[in-house]
Amino acid sequence: MTIKTVQSENLWTETPLVYSSHISDIIGCSAYLKLENLQPSQSFKYRGISKFAQQCKDKHGPSVHLMIASGGNAGLAAAVVARVLEVKCTVFLPTNVSIDTQQALRKHGAEIVTIGEFYSQTLAALQDAHRLTRHLRQAKRILVSLVPAYDSPVLWDGHSSMMTEMKRQLPRKPDAIFCSVGGGGLIGGIMQGCKKVGWDEVPVVALETTGSNCFYNAIAINTRNFTSKVPIVPSIEVEDNSPYTVEILEEYNIAIPHMKALRSRAASLGATSPAPGVVRMAVDRPGGIKCACIPDEMAMHTARLFGDDHKILTELACSTTLTPGYNREFLLRILGPTFSALSPEERKEKCLVFVVCGGVKISFEEMMEFEEIVAAAQVQSYWSVQIDGEETQLPKQ
Description:
Blueprint: E1 17-19, H1 21-27, E2 30-35, H2 45-60, E3 65-69, H3 73-85, E4 88-93, H4 99-107, E5 111-114, H5 119-132, H6 134-140, E6 144-147, H7 153-159, H8 161-169, E7 176-180, H9 185-197, E8 204-209, H10 214-222, E9 244-249, E10 254-259, H11 276-284, E11 289-294, H12 296-310, H13 316-322, H14 328-340, H15 344-348, E12 351-356, H16 364-376, E13 382-387, E14 390-395
Parallel strand pairs: 2-12, 3-4, 3-6, 4-5, 7-8, 7-12, 8-11
Antiparallel strand pairs: 1-2, 9-10, 11-13, 13-14
Family: Belongs to the serine/threonine dehydratase family.
Keywords: Lyase, Pyridoxal phosphate
GO molecular function: L-serine ammonia-lyase activity; threonine deaminase activity
């Protein structure tokens, strides 16, 4: 049986939503895991990128050449779907992407170009190459489609399919949905999906690592550091020691931060700026968005705990999502005083969903390294985190 014969109209897989007794016991309410690591490319990105690639082939035919700039997981999604669709694929990668990730891309037939220190530089290199070779492509009648890694309504629509599945799979409407954020593709899909299924009032919690938190900064600067429910476009002037510069986008009437540097090991969260359309959706959303940032070491610690409990390896971008499930105090601080005031019996009736976004940037060797880093960080008895503009310290659990 070939790959083609088992494909439905949509190329992505309907992933299971499983109850986690381990996390439920820790936080005192029902915790469910949406296992996006089971997609063909091992991350949620396959949903939106496969939809985009299908549209490219439908429009341009089987000779279309897909090109994408990626930190790894979006590129792998493009390579896997290109193999299924039998079209050509080239992936531009930052120079620090691991050999393992490069080998995975080549295994699926992708050509690779390594250039740039950060994703933004790699994307600029791809765009330059596309512009400079335009006349050559026209002469040879080569059809190239640039595939976005996260900033596209088509991608968000594809990612939103997980919410349609979730509504069928859950016994009732969730009380909160947790996800990690890099450039905003996943949370854009979650917000769109919530709108489709009537969950616009369900709180969505966006988690990032400190030092790779462009979305957190975007929400902060457009809401006066989380104090205004009405979006307020700020001045582009920032202090010299600010970790970002600010750009005002009139199309969205929104301010977008551009991180000057990325200081996190969570490479899949390594966008220097978020998708403007997603930021606009977030500040306009009736149910709002709750934002939190954690240190890398906390994500590393959670990755080990989750691996021990569920026998699943997760890269840091994924384990970041799961940190509130392994620290009850963190969860209560995020969900606020109303949730915290519930009795144990009332809390048991609550239902939370954690999107296990997947990703291939993890190995046993890295997990061992994480354990050493976490052990060295034990000299401090607390984690320093940021939640909606406030820095707080959490006891290590």
